[in-house]
Specification:
The protein has four helices and twelve strands. The protein is α+β, with helices and mostly antiparallel strands. The protein has a five-stranded antiparallel beta sheet. A four-stranded mixed beta sheet has the order 3-2-4-5, sandwiched between helices. A hairpin with a 5-residue loop joins strand 11 and strand 12. It is globular. The chain starts with a helix and ends with a strand.
Length: about 240
């Protein structure tokens, strides 16, 4: 536990001073998208609407497999493509596509089909399969306290750093000439510890919390397979800039 606490403090250096989101969000929605995908802008718009809600944690991952079209997605990274392929393995699928929404690490839908995404969010929440393990982060007396509640099973604790908003003028590829605004653009994902179903609490000085006021960090408690493929998200919250 001592090693984990030290690692957790170091890994949280980039989170801005903040208050956390809900301990029990309705769900976590992850969009896999690309600036070079002509079908993606409508899904990016759906993600923007989800990001504006206070009961859903919405994250946008930009994959790199469309970069060959002549425009390199400015947010793309192989690790985001690997995460999507990991989900494909979890769901028993042999291929990936954009735009894809993954809901709570348990189900997926075409990212632009807002009605289906909402339907799956509701079904998982109503069926008790949403992120039910409480995670809270509070700031008081110069300290940040992060608490993970008890539950069943084992999971990794992930920090998902994101930019709140970014506007890009696309010069080549299928979306050439368009200027698109992206929300909750993921920049990095870190695994910072393992949870064994027991209550866990981490306290750190608020002075170590640094970062851009335009971003934030989602804290996800997620099952992982032996091959490190992502699975069900058991708990989640988000830390964002004060007033952001």
């Amino acid at each position: 536990m001592k090693r984990f606490s030290i690692f957790f403090v170091v890994s949280l250096l980039a989170i801005p001073p903040a208050l956390a989101g809900p301990a029990h969000p309705k769900g976590v929605v992850e969009l896999f998208t690309s600036q070079s995908c002509s079908s993606c802008p409508p899904a990016d718009a759906v993600l923007a609407r989800l990001a504006a809600r206070d009961d859903v944690i919405a994250l946008s991952y930009h994959v790199d497999y469309w970069n060959y079209l002549g425009w390199r997605d400015t947010f793309s990274a192989k690790k985001f493509t690997d995460r999507q392929y990991g989900y494909a393995k979890t769901f028993g699928r042999g291929s990936v596509y954009t735009p894809q929404m993954v809901i709570d690490g348990r189900d997926a839908a075409i990212g632009s089909d807002e009605a289906v995404v909402e339907e799956k969010l509701k079904a998982l929440a109503d069926g008790g399969k949403g992120p039910a393990v409480p995670i809270t982060a509070t700031q008081s007396a110069g300290k940040i306290t992060i608490k993970v509640g008890a539950g069943g099973g084992n999971a990794d604790l992930l920090l998902v750093y994101f930019d709140k908003k970014a506007t890009v003028a696309i010069g080549k590829g299928e979306n050439s000439g368009k200027t698109i605004t992206y929300w909750h653009v993921v920049r990095d994902v870190q695994t910072v510890g393992m949870w064994d179903g027991k209550t866990m609490s981490v306290v750190m000085p608020a002075s170590v919390i640094k970062g851009s006021s335009s971003g934030g960090c989602a804290i996800l408690l997620q099952e992982m397979s032996a091959s490190n493929a992502p699975g069900a998200i058991l708990g989640a919250t988000v830390v964002s800039a004060t007033g952001g």
